[in-house]
Amino acid sequence: MRVFVASLATETNTFSPLFVDRSAFEGAFYCPPGTHPETPTLCSGPVVAARRRARADGFTLFEGTATWAEPAGLVSRAAYESLRDEILDQLRGAMPVDVVLFGLHGAMVARGYDDCEGDLLAHARAIAGPEAIVGAELDMHCHLTDQMVEAADVITAFKEFPHTDFLERAEDLVDLCLRAAKCEIAPASAVFDCRAITGFMTSREPGRGFVDRMLALEGQEGILSISVAHGFQAADVHDVGTKVLVIADGAANHGKAAALAERLGREILNWGAGGGAPYHFKPEEAIVQALAEVGQPVVLADRWDNPGGGVAGDSTVMVEALLRHPEIPAAIGALWDPVAVSFCRAAGIGAEIDLRFGGKAASTSGKPIDARVVVRGVTDDLLVPFEQSWVSLGPAAAVTIGNLDVVLASTRAQTFSPPVFTDLGIDLAAKKIIVVKSSNHFHAAFAPIAHKVHYLDTGGPYPSDTAKIPYTRARRPLSPLDPNPWL
Questions:
Q1: Is residue 483 part of a domain?
Q2: Which tens digits make up the pLDDT trace of 413-433?
Q3: I need a labelling partner for 295 at 20 to 30 A (CA). Which of 143, 240, 277, 485 fits?
Q4: Cβ–Cβ < 8 Å for 43, 169
């Protein structure tokens, strides 16, 4: 058997002022054929999973390029087309193949391409031919389009939010595609469009129990796989919103798959907003709430200035709020400011300097902070763990202003785990408040050290109020902009 695998991924916030060219992929993660590390990145799990199965099963594996750019705004047409064509040329060179596997995100938008993943899969299908099995793994915050479903035999999406299962879902994908290529199963896909922008966390109920039931249903009564595409609300595209994908074994089970997809979709809709974070505190509210907690540290997630949502991660709103309470031992990070980092690294550890940082990318980023700081720690590369992967925040520095420690980074990335702070010498146990720039990806690593976890609304720039997002391309009706037709 001959198998081809590649990865091309980013998440596009079409409202973001940050733009992506090819250098953003090459600077973040770019592995030509055969150079992918043994550990996966968030969207390249199929490469690692396919390698493991090739060693175990003895099939011939052809690796294409694997690349990722940090979430941001629109991808340039030239960047997308050059990377797409690079991978497609590699696929042509591997032909004939029995299986084509992709690690994708599912929410990449380029100039002229609202559905990059659907376009890539359709081209791959045309090259591989109708008899080949084509499969893709997606982030759950994807736009599940008709073109994707039509071009691929198997699609699996992460089930967990935080994303703790990207390698497991890649292993599911590889297994299903290999079984299909051996004619052991005949995947048949059914999709239920919830006609809503919704989503849920699996770090709390009802999402936790829902995903546990999804997993229990797989492999039973002809159901091969269940995925929920939560959608990515910060993208003005036709397919924005939540959809449920159920893959059954054989056309005879397609009706069962469609019925299950609808049942699960309606269950999600019945939660309303109850599947997400329980409450988003305004900055001063959050501080009052944290002080009322008996223990420490209290972790506050700045969800709407989260680099994983395609925005800068340089908002100073919570920095200003904490500076108004100089008595509180606190830490915040990581703020994106490569210029400030370069000043701190040049000054050196222990230096006391006047520093301006943050508040650069957009009006919603707040005002730059001007303060006398002590450089607490510096590093050439702040490399932190995220599940089975490692994420680089680039050269970084920690600065201290009284009782407040601030981590500054040169590369935009979510605050995935405590080493963002501790590797720069910050003692998190001594802090009453820790503010992380992350949506929910931080939760698995921070929850064990946190007395409590709460979520913030700092005002942007990620569009947080779904009912006010100025969509022009989204299909309608789409709740909460319109009444939901299923309720």
A1: no
A2: 999 999 999 999 999 999 999
A3: 277
A4: no
